[in-house]
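Q: What structure does this chain adopt?
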Amino acid sequence: MKRFLFLSMSVFIVVMMWVSVYEKEDDLLLSQKLERAMRLTNMREYHDDDYDYTIRYPSFFEQTSDSLLDKGCCRFSFWQDSLEIVQTAFTEQNTENLTLEQAMTKYALDFHVTSQQKGNGFFILSGHIFDDNGRITGRCFHVKFVKHRKLWFVQSLTYPEECEQAIQRIIKEIDNWKVW
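A:
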């Protein structure tokens, strides 16, 4: 009986703590709630059997069915209200046989990057998203290209600018991504 009472009290305390924490969160912006969720979530792993690479993504992101994607591609997304975050990975042929420097310069111009970084066998680009009409207000990207023979292994993230702080954990995952 004492054990049951103790467990009942423990459950009551946990429920009360949960309610008090989450009632206060109702006043938070969605980006702040997302930042908290990103800190607390587990990361899942996806392994691509076609090209033998693995990526990590937040457990609350939804995976797009592989049958809807090209061979060697995966897509994970989070959508709530007007907030959309998309993490993808894919392979791309290096048909022009570009070096890291050449590819980084080409894609930096194509994507209008604001930040670029070159490493050993990879480069990272980030900036605002543009379409044919110019900059898309409030949308950003972060992408890593890893060169392997005649292939580029690419992992990218698109997100609302207001969520940049909230998604830092995913950006670090991408920055630290090793294909093998």
